[in-house]
């Protein structure tokens, strides 16, 4: 007898989404399995952030289905959606730290809200553990405005993982950071996935970063996933749109690439 195929942790089935007259997602299919890291690549404005917002129920599909840990975020009550979100960590494109709290207080916040049974000592230990993971222990008493962009990202990552989520979503974790800092963030994405055994989705337009972190890469173009595979398979993919995107060539089928500079 054949063993049953594993259930995907995140399963987007033919998802369509428009904003007014603008069709953004035109039938997106995407599966993410336990323990793997999937990168969604594509140009700015193609709907990468919109895609992951569907996973946390910040957007609902016009048609198609979004399944996360077996539930449909768009169909849950507020309470059940809140419970589902607690099983997910979301690193926003902007780090979204609260400026009037220290790094340590920012990381502690989800515990104060959602782990009320934890003692102050247990909370402090958990916060320090996560700050150590991202190497931000020393800076824990600083305010977000006092630290660099890379450090803000790391602090936001510590906060995103403080509840040990089963799924972690990263929206452009390395955009705007220099190549060396980007590398350290990529290393953190890799080590976090391994340490927590979480499924991860990383949205990026940085190919170097996608190759480093992803088990599989999916390319979003004109509202659909036009290619998916391991980094090696994507590099060998013959689709001219994929080739143009991954090589950064100005000339090719991607409309407006040469005009965009
Ligand atoms: N809430 C919204 N209302 C209207 N338009 C939106 C909304 N969210 C995203 N869009 C539009 O959808 C398109 C895709 O956006 P986004 O997912 O943010 O792109 P990216 O791939 O750069 O993350 C953009 O043209 C954006 O302006
Ligand atoms: Mg985006």
Notes on the structure:
The chain is α/β, with parallel strands linked by helices and 261 residues long. It has a domain of 118 residues: 3-Layer(aba) Sandwich (Rossmann fold), CATH 3.40.50. Helices cover 36% and strands 23% of the residues. The protein has nine helices and nine strands. The strands form two sheets. It has a six-stranded mixed sheet, sandwiched between helices. Strands 2-1-4 form a three-stranded antiparallel sheet. A hairpin with a 2-residue loop joins strand 1 and strand 2. The longest helix is centred in the C-terminal third of the chain and has 18 residues. The N and C termini lie far apart (56 Å). 37% of the residues are buried. The model has no long low-confidence stretch (mean pLDDT 92). Bound molecules: adenosine-5'-diphosphate and magnesium ion. The site of magnesium ion (MG) has 5 residues, from helix 1.
Write the layout of secondary structure elements.
Blueprint: E1 10-19, E2 22-32, E3 37-41, H1 48-55, E4 63-68, H2 78-85, E5 88-91, H3 103-114, H4 120-133, H5 149-160, E6 167-171, H6 179-196, E7 199-204, H7 207-213, E8 216-221, E9 224-229, H8 231-236, H9 240-247
Parallel strand pairs: 3-7, 3-8, 5-6, 6-7
Antiparallel strand pairs: 1-2, 1-4, 8-9
This protein binds adenosine-5'-diphosphate (ADP) and magnesium ion.
């Amino acid at each position: 007898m054949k063993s049953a195929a594993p259930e995907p942790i995140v399963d987007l089935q033919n998802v369509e989404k428009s904003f007014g007259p603008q069709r953004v997602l035109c039938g997106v299919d995407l599966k993410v399995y336990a323990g793997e890291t999937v990168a969604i690549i594509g140009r700015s404005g193609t709907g990468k952030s919109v895609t992951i917002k569907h996973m946390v129920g910040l957007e609902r599909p016009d048609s198609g289905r979004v399944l996360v840990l077996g539930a449909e975020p768009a169909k849950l009550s507020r309470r059940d959606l809140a419970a589902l979100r607690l099983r997910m960590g979301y690193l926003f494109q902007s780090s979204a730290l609260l400026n009037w709290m220290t790094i340590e207080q920012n990381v502690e916040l989800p515990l104060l809200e959602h782990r009320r049974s934890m003692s102050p000592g247990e909370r402090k230990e958990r916060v320090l553990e996560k700050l150590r993971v991202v190497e931000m222990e020393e800076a824990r008493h600083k305010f977000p405005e006092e630290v660099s962009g890379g450090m803000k990202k790391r602090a936001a990552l510590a906060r995103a993982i403080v509840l040990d989520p089963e799924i972690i979503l990263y929206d452009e974790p390395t955009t705007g950071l220099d190549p060396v800092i980007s590398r350290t963030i990529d290393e953190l994405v890799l080590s976090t996935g391994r340490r927590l055994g979480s499924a991860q989705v990383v949205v990026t337009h940085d190919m170097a970063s996608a190759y480093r972190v992803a088990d599989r890469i999916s390319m979003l173009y004109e509202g659909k996933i036009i290619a998916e595979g391991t980094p090696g398979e994507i590099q060998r993919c013959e689709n001219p749109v994929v080739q143009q995107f991954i090589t950064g060539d100005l000339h090719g089928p991607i409309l407006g690439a040469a005009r965009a500079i």
